Write the structure tokens for this entry.
Amino acid sequence: MKISSWNVNGIRSSFYKGLEDFVKKEKPDILCLQETKAHKEQLDEEIKNLGNYPFKYWSSCGRKKGYSGTATFSQIPFLDTRGLGIKKYDWEGRIIVSEFDSFFLLNIYFPNGALTLERHLFKQEFLKRIVVFLKKLQKDTKKELIIVGDYNVAHLDIDVHSPKTLQKTSGFLPEERKWFSHFLKEGYVDVFRYFYPNQKEAYTWWSHRENARRNNRGWRIDHICVTPKLKSNLKGIKIHQDQLGSDHCPITLELKN
């Protein structure tokens, strides 16, 4: 089974710039998109029917159009789909919780805290509350978890192009890196680092400034993490750094059947 995740930074623009081609080429069984920036009723039929997935679920921002949003497309039937259950996060369309037979898949667009102090605090609270939510979800359901998306946090020095100069930048702040360490100590597995513990220059996002992508001056802020019992099911993970269509690139997890 293949699960792909991609912050498309606007599904309408990315559809014609590489998203449609990626889906046709990669054929993920489940596709999770973040920052769709659209309500479903705003979309052309070919975009809504991306990849002809029979099962799909959209979570759009109720605060304003053209902001945030997530979407999950699946070839496998959902048992259930819902949000986080916390209005201020669900209202921004930040999370889709999809239940399948043996696991939950969480498609999450973590907040960006760079713009204002208010958004920084909003993000820090989200980071804390999502860990509580995940622990309760697994305790209550006894199912394994797969958490994909744009975490908006880079963890290690090798996850950014210039760790010394970026240590005071949102997404690589000490408290955010500490949160990621705590998250992993709770038992979650960063799948990319599980397979490639020391690989450098494996980035998933590049600024639009100063030819950052051309020079591979990026960040690894898009992640797929799983609960420990799923380690035996892991087959591989790929960062599609050459895939265009957004300022992020897709990542694909492959699981053994």
Summary: The chain has a mean pLDDT of 96. Residues 187 and 228 are 6 Å apart (CA to CA). The helical segments are 11-26, 45-48, 87-90, 117-141, 163-166, 174-185, 191-195. The radius of gyration is 17 Å.
